[in-house]
Design goal:
452 residues, alpha/beta, 8-stranded parallel β-sheet, 36% helix, 11% strand
């Protein structure tokens, strides 16, 4: 792949401080250390997409797991207990530490992810790791997602993440179709075109960490490598490099990626969803966890993928081990108010109202501003701090007024020379949000815990 470059990817409210360009190391891992298995071809003709969701042929192919370097006594992964059944997808400029803290006011058990962090960012910013890896203990269970194409560099970045601490999973991004990532920087979804390179990266990640699970998030295909056989070959190639102590875990966005001609947003909607293809992997690889992502908007959608009866009725195949929610988790965070009850067996008592979620978050925001007032760190600007709250009232009476009050209040204070990091800046921010909430939203809605 040659040289790959990418500047720091940080939130829009954070000053763009570029890391030095970094080169892909040519240190190829010895093939003897990476016991590749010859993929077994499986015939699976896909019908042409007639709708947004493609259905695989009814007959599922026989398992090809017999050649795996891992053993499993179960005939399918229904007997495997996933580490989590529900997670929120890593999303650039969205799932920052402020958003994650706010979400922990709604759900204690849903697996959270950082934004994707480029390996070179951590390698060249070792003195400022908290800007990229910083998090509150309450955010756990928390995974960090890495991007990169050099086995050596990604492995080193994984070791840095584990040493920093607080992550139960280190995930490799093999699904991002952004031109900045997949075309210019030669990683993300582009790695699906090179399973052996992906295997080398995962091998080095697994070798460099000792007590953190390593997982993969990918698409079901990329460009011309989009057949069922291609997907089977990809998983068969890379799974021996995942940690041997845990079932290999794959998070699949149920769409292919088109690396040219589509924007990232179009790549989330134009390629048709193919749920049966993901579900069929449960039979093909019974020793693996498969977590599905893409187009899941409601709890009914999510539970259908986890239910044997509903998955079969939908024509998808056996249920998957877990579900990952993407944009719906950001646009409608209140959806997660009953996630712990529905997916993790938690009791129905103790749910927070939206007022309590906001008050808890404002305490956190004030502490963050005071903590970083002498040094710009953590994205503690008014825009970054208020962003997670904007959709908490989506679709509710007064929700749009709340957003407008916040925007107008920030603009007014800015004209007055307001500096959130100055004296009284943090308390002024808390006052701004509190006044906007009380001025635009009804008490009944604010105080309803919404568990019914």
């Amino acid at each position: 792949m040659g040289k790959c470059y990418l500047r720091d990817i940080i939130t829009s409210d954070t000053p763009a401080t570029a890391a030095p360009d970094y080169n892909e190391a040519d240190s190829e891992v010895a093939q003897a250390e990476l016991p590749a298995e010859a993929p077994v071809a499986i015939e699976a003709a896909l019908p042409a997409a007639a709708s947004a969701i493609i259905r695989e042929p009814e007959a599922l192919t026989e398992s090809i797991s017999s050649g795996s370097s891992r053993s499993s006594s179960s005939s399918n992964n229904n007997n495997l207990k996933p580490p989590y059944t529900l997670s929120i997808a890593p999303m650039m400029e969205w799932t920052d530490r402020h958003y994650r803290y706010m979400m922990r006011g709604l759900t204690q058990h849903t697996q959270l992810y950082t934004e994707m962090i480029v390996d070179g960012t951590l390698l060249h910013r070792r003195d400022d790791l908290s800007l990229f890896l910083g998090h509150d203990e309450c955010e756990q269970p928390l995974a960090v997602q890495l991007g990169g194409s050099s086995p050596t560099d990604v492995g080193e970045a994984a070791a840095i993440c584990e040493a920093y601490g607080g992550f139960n999973e280190i995930n490799l991004n093999v699904g991002c179709p952004s031109p900045r990532v997949a075309t210019k920087a030669c990683f993300g979804a582009r790695l699906m075109l090179d399973p052996d390179k992906t295997r080398q990266i995962l091998h080095e990640m697994t070798r460099r960490v000792t007590h953190t699970n390593v997982t993969v998030k990918c698409r079901i295909g990329a460009d011309e490598k989009d057949s069922y056989d291609d997907l089977l070959s990809f998983i068969q190639t890379v799974r021996p490099s995942l940690p041997p102590s845990l079932p290999p875990t794959f998070i699949l966005h149920a769409r292919k990626a088109l690396l040219s001609g589509l924007s990232p947003a179009q790549n989330r909607s134009v390629p048709p969803l193919n749920y049966p293809r993901v579900h069929s992997l449960v039979t093909a690889f019974p020793d693996c966890y498969f977590i599905i992502n893409g187009g899941i908007q409601t709890w009914q959608d999510a539970q259908a993928h986890l239910s044997e009866e509903e998955s079969a009725a939908a024509g998808w195949g056996p249920p998957v081990a877990g579900v990952m929610i993407g944009r719906a988790a950001y646009h409608h965070p209140w959806l997660f108010r009953n996630a712990d009850t529905l997916f993790f067996g938690a009791g129905r008592d103790g749910g927070r109202s939206r007022r309590e979620v906001v008050e808890r978050y404002l305490d956190y925001a004030e502490k963050m501003v005071l903590l970083h007032k002498d040094k710009f760190n953590g994205g503690c600007t008014p825009g970054a701090l208020v962003k997670p709250l904007l959709n908490l009232f989506a679709g509710e009476p007064g929700g749009k007024i709340f957003r407008r009050r916040l925007s107008e209040g920030q603009a007014s204070r800015k004209k007055e020379g307001w500096d959130i990091n100055g004296d009284g800046g943090a308390s002024a921010f808390v006052e701004l949000v509190s006044l906007a909430m009380e001025d635009s939203l009804g008490s009944d809605m604010l105080d309803d815990v919404g568990l019914d």
